[in-house]
Amino acid sequence: MRTFTAILLIVAVAFAAAATKPAAADDGSWTPIGSVASPHFQQFGQWVADELGAPIRFYRVVSGKRQNANGINYKFVVAMGNRVGVEDNYEVEVHVTVDRSPRALTPVAGEQ
Fold first, then answer.
1. What is the CATH classification number for the domain harbouring 77?
2. What are the boundaries of the signal sequence (predicted)?
3. Does residue 7 lie within any of the structural domains?
4. Of 32, 56, 86, 88, which sees the most CB atoms within 10 A?
């Protein structure tokens, strides 16, 4: 009985420690964004297309991930097209500074 109680106590302490551990997002790792369909992330995609200028047309943000690093770095796969409507996916990086000042766009990395 004492062994069972000791094991149960160790398991309970392990769960409590895991629950209070800070999120791994601050360690520089990339974490997926599950809700890229939200207006917030779709606005990022539109901003990317606007920054790239004509003839780029924004369709939607397909996927994304984020990294905390002196602000927030985002990597998005964005569906964009040209003026005749040919659609391709492009990977772009966007950096948002800590004070939320204007975003910096890393040039399009290429088709995905």
1. 3.10.450.10
2. 1-18
3. no
4. 56
Residue type, 41: F
Rounded CA-CA distance 100/31 in Å is 20
pLDDT tens column, 33-74:
999 999 989 998 998 888 888 788 999 999 999 999 888 889
Cis peptide before 22 (omega within 30 of 0): no
Is 48 inside any structural domain? yes
* SS3 assignment for the chain: CHHHHHHHHHHHHHHHHHHHCCCHHHHCCCEECCCCCCHHHHHHHHHHHHHHCCCCEEEEEEEEEEEECCCEEEEEEEEEECCCCCEEEEEEEEEECCCCCCCEEEEEEEEC
How is residue 32 written in tokens?
């997926």
Is the per-residue pLDDT at 96 higher than 50? yes
